[in-house]
Each structure stands twice: as structure tokens, then as C-alpha cells.
Amino acid sequence: MIALEEPHLSPSHNPDDQARLQAIIDAAIDGIITIDTRGIIETVNPAVSTIFGYQPEEMIGNNISMLMPEPDHSAHDQYIENYKRTGQRKIIGIGREVKGLKKDGTVFPFLLSISEVKLQDRIIFTGIIHDISQQKKAEVAQLESENKIQSIIQTAVDGIITIDTRGIMEMVNPAAARLFGYQEEEILGKNISMLMPEPDHSAHDGYMENYHQTGKRKIIGIGREVSGLKKDGTVFPLFLSISEVQLADRKVYTGFIHDITQQKISEERLRRYAAELERSNRELQDFAYVSSHDLQEPLRKIQAFGDRLKSKETSNLSAQGKDYVDRMLNAAVRMQNLINDLLTFSRVTTTSKGFEKVSLDGILTEVLSDLEITIEQTGTEIERFPLPVIEAEPTQMRQLFQNLISNAIKFRKDNEKPVIRISSSNHQRTAHLTSTPGDEVVEILVEDNGIGFEEKYLDRIFNIFQRLEGQKYEGSGVGLAICRKIAIRHGGNITAKSQPGKGTQFIITLAKKNLQE
User: Fold this and answer.
1) Using the 8-state DSSP alphabet, how is residue 168 labeled?
2) Backbone angles phi, psi at 462, to 5 degrees
3) Which stretches does DSSP call E strand in 104-173?
4) Shortest CA distance to 403 belongs to which of 436, 363, 433?
5) Torsion of CA 370, 371, 374, 376, to 10 degrees
6) Separation of first and last alpha carbons in the chain
7) Structure confidence by residue, pLDDT tens digits, 261-305
8) Phosphoprotein: is it a keyword of this entry (predicted)?
9) Is residue 160 a contact partner of residue 179, using CB atoms and an 8 Å limit?
10) Best CA proximity match to 486, nearest among 468, 462, 461, 505
11) Packed helices 479-489 and 394-410: angle between N→C axes, nearest 10 degrees
């Protein structure tokens, strides 16, 4: 490194001062270059080599323009010449942002300040170079980030409003202006309370003041449903969430506004629809219950007169007459079974007994005991695994197991021993209409090796009176519909997997805890 102007120092200059000055220059982070009046580089400090990528010997003795991109590269000598002739400064003693050219061809920004130094016999210029590449990158990144944020704010579907601690609106995005029916300039600089109906309109400033004094939050950082007031006087529901932002010297609050008018309309329609559906369902159940009871009396008379006609004491019927009576009585029995099934179906959601802790294992044992004779006669093999305790209606759980096991026995294959496997597992619900995600549910599997069915009929088999096998098997087509109603009432559902000739697997989900009555 060539000592800065060492040949021109006064002989009386203190060598220690010179060494100290040189050490400071060499240790400087910024680049320091001296050039003569022709633009020839005389000295450079180590920082210049770091910034431009040249060794000192590659720069000293060459024109400073080697470190400049076009057009400064070509114009530099003329600039010095013009300065010497006219004294007109463009950068000397002023400083500004310029471009530099590194050895590898990279162009980069830096701040350049130049001072003119008059020595005993000549003039030199000293340039101090501060590389601002990283600062510029940070500025560009910040600008891009700000542009992205601004773009998001301007194009957001929801309204966004920023207010100061007095409630004065400082920023309103287009969505918020549209939402309230104003132009942005109509509400900027105004108190946010103008967008609120009473009593919030009058209470807002007091709420702000109370928050600043006590820190007690009612909505900041929480969010809730509130009412908004449009320019035309319309009051509408909205969901408002507010965030508090601490700037360098003050606080601001940003509100995110989501119009829930359509959501409220939909909720009201659903509420009315559900109420109407519930009313219709009760009427249908009452109709089924009353009709079933009303059918009992004439049916009992048909059965009684049929039995009397068949009795030995009074029977003078021909063989054909006896056949007709037998057919009538068989039809009456089928009618009685259908009425009983309808009564059971109508009772599923009208039973007065509430939910209680129920051992599904105990319920299953009772059902298998009731079906013991049928199980022995058909040679059915039961494979059972532990079942949990849940909150349920015991009678309906008994009905559920009885229907599914009876079906499995009924729809067995002629040439194969019936095998029924009953098991369960617990898992967290991900989504369901009757409960929230995360609720624990029980999944019960009832599997058989029976005749099965094609899964294209899956939507049909749980509807009332659907019988895929026609008249081949006894039954009214109500059993699986009852199972579905029971599962739904217990916070779950029922579905199945099956293939013809390969058996069926029924999957029943039940909530472990039920709050409905």
C-alpha cells in the first residue's frame, strides 16, 4: 500500500501522526481513493480492493474511470476538465449516489463524497466510497413487500380500516368503502363511529378511552360479531377482528371487516327449514304411530275370524276355502310384522327415555341371548371383541344390534356356515354435521360372510321399505332405516361395504358423549 501523499509531507510533520493516520485509513470500512487532476489513481486503502475486487497494484497508476460503468466511464475525464476550466461542481464537496463497476463486471450502487485537497505544489482529490448494495437490496425487498401488502389490501374481498388512538380513520381499502357505501375520501379523517349504529356510535370513543386507561379488551385481539351502519342508513351484521400495532412513535388499530349478511340469511333459512322439517317429521311419526294403532284392531278381527274359520268345530270349508284362509292369515301376520316395524321406526326419535352411560358389551350380550335359538338353529358363529361404554339410549342400542345381527343371519349363504364378527375402535372426528371436529367417536363394525350386495345400491338400503332381494327373504325393509335413525340420533351415521357373494361390513359411528335428549 502506498502511503497517502507521503512524498509531499512537510519534513517537520510528526512521523507518529503520519503512522496513526495511515492506520486509520487502512482500517476504514469505507473505501478511500486519491486521484490527481488527470484522474489517475495515486492511493487506495484496503476497503477499495474489497469493494471493487482489484488488488491495489491493479488500480494505482490507472484512470479512476476504470471503476465506473458507462456513461460515467467515458464522461469522467471531460467532467474533471470542465471543473478545472469553469469551477462548476457536480459532486465535489457535495456527494451523491453513483454507480461503480467491479472487476467481475458487476455494477453496484455506492455513496461517493469527494473533497479537493490543495497541497504545496498541486491539487488532489480524495473520494470516500460507501457501498450501499445491501441497503439497496433491503430497500427493494421492503418496497416489494410494501407493494405486495398494498396490493393485498387494495384487492382484499373483506374490508380493512386503520384508525389512530382517537378513532380517526387513516386508511380505508376499496372493499371497506364499498361495504359501507362511501367513497374513500368521504370517510378518511373521520371518526370510525360514523360507521356504527347506536348504541355503539355514542359509546365507541368511551370504549377507546377506557381501553387506553385500563387495558381491558372487548374486541381487540378477540373478534366478534357486531353491526355496521351504511351510508344509506342500512344496519347490517359483520364479523370484526381488530389488531393493535405499535409503530415507532404511536399505536394504530387495524380492523378486518367480513360482511356476514348472506351467512345470516342462510342461517335463518336453515333454521326455518330445520324447524319445518322437525315439525313435518313429528307429524309423520305421529301419523305412522296413530295409523299403526288404528290398523291393529281390524287386523286382530281378521286374524280372529280366520282362526275361527280354521277351527275344527266350525270349519265346513272346502280345501280351496281352507287355502284361502291360510293365505289370508299369512298376509295378516306379515301385516302385523310391518305394523310393529313402523311403530319401532316412529318411536326412534320420540322415545321419552334419555341418554345414559351404556355398556355396549352388556347390550350385545343381551341381544345374543335373545337370538340364542336362531343362532343355534342356523349354526351361526359369533366372533366378538370388547366394546366401549358410551352415552346412549339403551333400548335403541339394543334395537341397533338386533337388527344388524338378525340381518346377517337372515342373508346367509345356503352352503356356508354364517360367521358374524363384531368389533369397535375409537378415533377423533374430523368433521360432522352434529358435532365439532375433535369429538371422540366410536366406530363399530358388524361383518358377515353372507350373500352381500352391489354397492351401487348403498344409498337405497338405509331408506325405509327398500328390499333388494324382493320377496325372497322375510321382512318389511324397515330394519336398516331404523339403524340409520338410531345412529344419527346418537351423533353418528351408518354405511356399508359389500360385494355380492363376499359378505357385508356395516360401519356404524356413534359419539361417545351425547348431549341431546
Assistant:
1) B
2) -95, 5
3) 107-118, 123-131, 159-164, 169-172
4) 363
5) -90
6) 93
7) 888 888 888 888 778 777 766 766 676 667 666 777 787 788 888
8) yes
9) no
10) 462
11) 150
Any idea which residue has 327415555 for its cell? 353
CA-CA distance, 427 to 439, in Å (whole number)? 9
Q: 56: cis peptide before it, omega within 30°?
A: no
DSSP designation for 195: G
Residue 502 half-sphere exposure toward CB, CA atoms < 13 A: 7
CA angle 484, 487, 492 (to 5 degrees): 120
Q: What is the DSSP letter of 233?
A: S
pLDDT digits (tens, 9 = 90+) for 373-428: 989 999 999 999 999 999 998 888 998 999 899 889 988 888 888 999 999 887 66
Phi, psi of 112 (to 5 degrees): -120, 125
| The model's pTM | 0.43
- CB 504 within 8 Å of CB 469: no
Long-range contacts, 218-223 (Cβ 8 Å, 24+): 220/244, 220/253
Over the Cα atoms of the chain, what is R_g? Answer: 46
